[in-house]
Design goal:
The protein is of the alpha/beta class. The protein is built from eleven helices and seven strands. It has a seven-stranded parallel sheet with strand order 3-2-4-1-5-6-7, sandwiched between helices. α2 packs antiparallel against α5 and α9 packs antiparallel against α10.
Length: 332
């Protein structure tokens, strides 16, 4: 472990890949890795790209990375692909569209399957971002799986979120629906060479006129084409402009605080779930309470409160008093 971290600090790409694999596979070393890397984390720009399947996110990112590399900056890419609910496997096809950068030492591409996680990202995406940040990448681009209107997890990771739209993304009603349209800092109308692109851009501008007329940052709408490269420079400038806006208005630090709180609450929730699952099998107080709810002898809110009280009391599951309460509950 120590040697792996030392190689990582020396910018060894193989050690980077190994650390990410350990985290993605939820290794027992995962927590130790994150703890070791936490205080070495640099300040990369973390950019999110989200949108419906087939919007051209991967191809657009490929073009954007080419422009970033021309400026001499390094990039880490996390491309999330859907996982089969039947086999558990994933094609990881987003990497295929980024082959131009496969041999570029300044670009690291990591494909990840969702493994059943909802929200558009894999469960370990946030931790992999930390690893790439500690590695020293200037930019970290996170591409979500093709998402629907309510998969918004990218907003808890990226400081700038780009929503990629296409000419065939529906009528104007879609633009005023709550959900994914509200988390975008930048709108990219991709495949702008196709019929209907101007209409999508106009409808998006109308939505922004209604919702953002009193806000300091009004998301720009940029026409892009991943085929011709049109609008890519403008997209990069918009991302840089949003970053300056966050810094100059002292918003960046408040966003980081909100993300830290969200992450801590997620970790606590995960710990609670694991702790409860450890007591689901066998004759424990937790399993008896669940049975009482299933048999309609107790409401779920009372059971949840009791389970929290039991697990929050050290050793309560093994004390004689705790066992007496378990027997009492079973008899009643």
């Amino acid at each position: 472990m120590q040697r792996l971290l030392e190689d990582f600090q020396r910018k060894d790409r193989r050690s980077l890949a190994k650390l990410i694999t350990l985290i993605e596979n939820d290794s027992p070393l995962k927590e130790e890795i994150i703890k070791k890397l936490h205080f070495t984390t640099k300040k990369a720009r973390i950019i999110g790209f989200t949108g419906s399947p087939g919007a051209g996110k991967s191809s657009l990112i490929d073009r954007l990375v080419k422009t970033i590399r021309q400026r001499g900056e390094t990039v880490g890419i996390i491309a999330v692909d859907p996982t089969s609910p039947f086999s558990g496997g994933a094609m990881l096809g987003d990497r295929i569209r980024m082959q131009e950068h496969a041999l570029d030492e300044g670009v690291y591409i990591r494909s990840m399957g969702t493994r059943g996680n909802l929200g558009g990202l894999a469960r370990s995406t946030k931790d992999v971002v930390k690893v790439l940040n500690a590695y020293g990448k200037d930019w970290i681009i996170v591409e979500t799986v093709g998402v629907g209107q309510a998969e918004l997890e990218i907003m808890n990771i990226a400081s700038t979120t780009t929503l990629v739209l296409t000419p065939d993304s529906g009528d104007g009603i879609q633009t005023i629906k709550a959900g994914i349209m509200e988390i975008a800092d930048i709108f990219a109308v991709n495949k702008c060479d196709l019929p209907g692109a101007d209409r999508v851009a106009t409808e998006t501008e109308m939505m922004l006129d209604m919702q953002y007329h009193k806000k300091a940052w009004r998301p720009p709408v940029i026409m892009t084409s991943s085929v011709t490269g049109e609008g890519v420079n403008e997209l990069l400038e918009a991302i840089n402009e949003h970053h300056r806006y966050l810094q100059e208005n002292n918003i960046y630090l408040s966003i980081q605080k909100e993300k830290a709180i969200t992450e801590i609450l997620d970790i606590i929730s995960s710990y609670w779930q694991k702790l409860i699952c450890q007591h689901l099998n066998g004759k424990s107080q937790v399993s008896f309470l669940l049975e009482k709810v299933a048999n309609q002898k107790m409401d779920p809110y009372t059971a949840a409160t009791k389970i929290i009280e039991i697990l929050a009391t050290p050793g309560s599951l093994n004390t004689a008093e705790g066992k007496k309460e378990m027997i009492s509950d079973a008899l009643s």
